[in-house]
Amino acid sequence: MAISDAEKTVAFIYNSAVAASALSAAWELGALDELNENGWLDAHEFAERQNLDPASTLGLFRALAAVDIVRRDDTKVVPSTNFAESFRTRSFFHWLSRGSAELFQRTPEITRAKNRTGDFYRRDSAAIAFACREISTFCYDPWFWAAVDDLDFDFTVAADLGCGSGERLMQLLHRSPGARALGFDRALPALEVARTEAAATGLADRVTFVEADVIAMEPRPELDDVDLLTCFMMGHDFWPRAQCVETLRRLRSLFPNARRFLLGDATRTTGIADQDLPPFTLAFEYGHDMMGTFIPSVADWESVFAEGGWKLHRKHSIDIAVGEVIFELEPA
């Protein structure tokens, strides 16, 4: 029986949903790195070596083969047409399939207005932090380090708001041996990852990770020493506008000696047809719509700085996946 184009398209959509989870799993289990390094693997041998269930492991590779990420000849698996790009963007899939799985699973309940009270959604904060750690490396890091290298002062204490796994702070400390750092996040599982990593890399005596809601942070004596303030991939939590202005003012007061504030975040896409959205954009914006989190545009951000007590020193427009931008701010 002939299969129509519509049936083929729907089958691809359905299989892609399975493959998205398989891709995230393949990264976490080490299969993607092995395929990238060696160019092939045997599914049964890989399962035995990694103490995995053989049938589940082969099914994982079948799912990847269904969307041409790998090619499979029985148990031999090699990269295929879509492997390189899937490997590059694997952290996006992990954000979706691991970190935000329950959010999207509960779409019907969350969409009903009567259910949108209290803590009406849940995400895996440790998985989000794990994914964002890599997302940051190619969506923000080159521009972030250019901004750090261009500072007209040598910072002594850096503070990162929404620090997640703490990777950014630890990289700063490795580059500046005499500096100290503070990391703030409300997700305790992510902070536990950060503390473990800091201890493993010998930085535990130079960095302190604090469980705190950035939006409602209270004054602390040690904040007076901070001269470099950073915040990446959580600035949209400052909004809506009135709250954002108030948060910026509060940060100006909480960190009175901050000489530079590097604020990097995604911005709302404009002028792109729904059918042309790149990976991550739809999931990020739709997911935050469900969470009730406003995603500001670049113009929205630029409209609040002066009112919030900050002056825009420089802007880095990145636009790799979700309208990324880094604002270099200094006290007004």
What does this structure look like?
This protein has 332 residues and is α/β, with parallel strands linked by helices. Helices cover 47% and strands 16% of the residues. The protein has a seven-stranded mixed β-sheet. A three-stranded antiparallel β-sheet has the order 1-3-2.
Key terms:
15 helices; Methyltransferase domain-containing protein; 10 strands; alpha/beta; SAM-dependent_MTases_sf; seven-stranded mixed β-sheet
Give a brief rundown of this model.
This is Methyltransferase domain-containing protein. With 332 residues, this protein is of the alpha/beta class.
Name the helix and strand elements from N-terminus to C-terminus, one letter apiece.
Answer: HHEHHEEHHHHHHEHEHEEHEHHEE
Low-confidence stretches: none
Count the helices. How many? 15
Helical proportion, percent range: 40-55%
Cα(first) to Cα(last) distance is 70 Å
Question: Strand portion, in percent?
Answer: 15-25%
Q: Which descriptor suits the 3D outline?
A: globular
Overall residue-averaged pLDDT value: 95
Tell me the radius of gyration: 22 Å
Strand arrangement within the widest β-sheet reads: 6-5-4-7-8-10-9
Number of strands: 10
Q: Summarize the main sheet.
A: 7 strands, mixed
Structural class: alpha/beta
